[in-house]
Amino acid sequence: MMAAKTNPHQIKESRIKLLDSVKRVVIKIGSGVLTKANGLNVAVINNLTKDICCLIEDGVEVIIVSSGAIAAGLKKIGLSKRPQSISQQQAMAAIGQSTLMIAYEKAFQQHRKQKIAQILITRDDLTHRRRYLNARNTLLTLLSWNIVPIINENDTVVVDEIKFGDNDNLSAMITNLSEAQLLINLTNIDGLFDMDPRENENAVLIDVVEKIDHKVTKYASSIPGFLGTGGMTSKIKAARKVALAGVPTIIANGLRPDIIKLIFSGESEGTLFLPEKVTLCRRKHWIAFTKYPKGEILIDSGAEKAIIDNGKNLLPSGIKDVKGRFSRGDSVVLLNENLNKIAIGMVNYHSSAIKKIMGLNSDMIHSKLGFKDNDEVIHRANLILTDKIEKEMMDVT
Ligand code: GLU
After folding, report:
1. Are residues 118 and 13 in the same domain?
2. Where residue 128 sits, what CATH number does that domain have?
């Protein structure tokens, strides 16, 4: 559901109300904003850091998720396009990351000698609850010391399986982890349009998205990205994840001078994505989106009904099959008899143990396994139904 034409006065008032409550913000800055033909765009970095320092002076805590390492690496060694091979892209990120941080250091030094910290992280780091909480503690400590964390994916060690995929996704995870009240995603176009504005001069900028529905995802798919990244689609997916945690997103043009200042003055910059009314608690959000499913469990129609209609636990008796190898504490997808994905949940047993107890009553678990941790294979508190997060959101990027 969208509001393309709304009274500008009303928009400003509702934006100001929303922004007034923001005490912590995640600002994601894309490669297309940070780089230009011959390397990093220092003028833009200066402009953004100046606005960020003003925000900090106003009492807002800021976490930056910054791309630009690969793009900076390319420019540094004189390549014009992103190499195909993963290892070369990883090498490029390693070359560019220090350049990127030096640029931020210099820019932040100019404004109130603001100190910064570099955090390189992988999705795998955040899928383990303890490491997730450690990352969170580090972030919160930095913020309490008035230091701006600058986060990027640790490209050196990631392979597809443990990748966020893109920094849009990473910024959504960090928004959830840090309990920020707003995600600002700065890119090189003005926001979400109904078609690609770089090719259609009649493209209309959407002011506010009340709900991310199929129309919105269709608009996004017509706007591809820069240097091979996710484009508008990955930004919308990130906005949806954040909306499900009850947090709004603003996608705006980071190349526009004073953009952060304009956004915080309530100007109608970019596209505002409102939060969902019914949201997932942080733990469920983490199970559904930060952890990636390691396998699948096929359940019978009785268990499907008990889970969907009556909010019950998943017991061994309702399980028909198990696919993949996973451990206690991993996330898995639940499939019904028609092989439709109906939920994501965090399991209490290893896949090999579930294979031994599937179809049995819970009181047989001990005699079959020689131990019993829980009656249920997945507790309802760790189950997220697909209709809550919508089918396409389950295809974790
Ligand atoms: N981590 C990559 C970089 O710093 C960017 C990935 C992305 O922009 O999505 O270049």
Report:
1. yes
2. 3.40.1160.10
- Ligand 1 atom showing the smallest separation from residue 71 Cα: 10
User: Is 68 part of a structural domain of the chain?
Assistant: yes
Atom of ligand 1 nearest to the CA of 164: 9
Q: Which atom of ligand 1 is nearest to the CA of 165?
A: 9
> What tokens appear for 116 in the block?
């910064």
Distance 28 CA to ligand 1 centre (A): 11
Convert 242-278 to b/e letters by CB count within 10 Å (16 or more is b).
Answer: bbbbbbbbbbbbbbbeebbbbbbebbbbbbbbbbbee
Ligand 1: distance of its center to the CA of 263 in Å? Answer: 24
* CA dist., res. 172 & res. 170, Å (int): 5
Cα(196) to centroid(ligand 1), Å: 22
For 279, phi and psi rounded to 5 degrees?
-120, 165
Using one digit for the tens of pLDDT, what is the confidence trace for 114-151?
A: 999 999 998 888 888 889 999 999 999 999 999 999 99
82/128 same-domain check: yes
> Which residue puts its alpha carbon closest to atom 2 of ligand 1?
67
Q: What is the pLDDT of residues 1-22, one digit of tens each?
A: 555 555 767 777 788 888 999 9
Virtual CA dihedral for 106, 108, 111, 112, nearest 10 degrees?
A: -110
Residue that finishes a domain, picked among 284, 305, 328: 284
Which protein residue's CA is at the shortest distance from atom 9 of ligand 1? 166
Query: Which atom in ligand 1 lies closest to the alpha carbon of residue 168?
Result: 9
Residue 306's φ and ψ, nearest 5 degrees, are: -60, -40
* pTM (predicted TM-score): 0.85
Residue 254 corresponds to which tokens in the numbers above? 């980071």
Mean pLDDT for the chain overall = 89
Q: Measuring CA to CA, how many Å separate 95 from each of 92, 107, 226, 251?
A: 5, 20, 19, 28
Q: Rounded to whole angstroms, how far apart are CA atoms 76 and 189? A: 25
Q: Of 165, 183, 177, which is closest to residue 251 (Cα–Cα)?
A: 183
Residue 210, both tokens: 């009340």
Ligand 1: which residues within 6 Å by Cβ?
A: 30-31, 67-71, 93, 152-153, 155, 166-167, 229
Name the residue range of residue 317's domain. 293-389
Give the Cα separation of 280 and 288 in Å (integer): 9
* Domain-ending residue, one of 284, 304, 335: 284
Distance CA 192, CA 223 (A): 9
Rg of the chain over Cα atoms, rounded to whole angstroms, equals 22
